[in-house]
Amino acid sequence: MARFLLVHGSCHGAWCWSRVVDALTRLGHEARAIDLPAHGDDPTPASEVTLDLYASALLAAAEAPTVLVGHSAAGFPVTLAAALDPGRIARLIYLCAYVPKTGKSIIDLRRAGPRQPLKDVVRADPGGVTYSADPQGARRTFFHDCPEDEIARALPRLCPEPIAPQATALPPGTETPPQPRHYILCQDDHTIPPEYQAEMARPFGAAITRLPSGHSPFLTAPARLARVLAALADEGPSLGP
């Protein structure tokens, strides 16, 4: 039995993992998802959110030993949490996620990508504290392969995304925590180009799994994703660097 903590990406919340949590539970594992600060039902003002606050929220929710699963932008806070408290985090799984690089923020990494699918989808809100996703753009990028009922459920739940954490690089020395790491590459992703995911995952060596999925496999194939996560949690300590 493994213990999973599932971490959402930009503009999402714990709600997006509900079917994966159920599927992992049916497989005999313990699983939960949380709202990061200023997301979902969390009341933290967006102006107070930092990358450090995200990591602290994850560590407060994690019970050793936890498998941290970070989707998309959550690649940064799960990495920082694992580096800050290695004894609590058993391993890291990056789901079509940004992998931290020295001195680079998520915004830096996104701009360095070979294509910019989000260029006309996300826009800074007045005041520049958050950005929001255009619903039609989100349908085209986040949810292009999702069933219509899932899209109808997801779009109204998208929330403004605090900009400050995504403009912050990880502290030097925390980009590569000591735990085993694995990357799940989504081959039909319209948000983070698959070829860019492959580039970011190159340091993982053979610890890469490919899914024939868009950016939201937790909505398109939650049972399959749960089986993949469960299999990776059962891997030995040789999983990745």
TrEMBL record:
Q: Which residues form the AB hydrolase-1 domain?
A: 4-227
Highest taxon above the source species: Bacteria
Task: List residues traversing the bilayer.
Answer: none
Q: Which InterPro entries match?
A: AB_hydrolase_1 (IPR000073), AB_hydrolase_fold (IPR029058), Sec-Metab_Biosynth_Hydrolase (IPR052897)
GO molecular-function annotation terms?
hydrolase activity
Q: Which UniProt keywords apply?
A: Hydrolase
Q: What is this protein called?
A: Alpha/beta fold hydrolase
> What species was this sequence derived from?
Albidovulum sediminicola
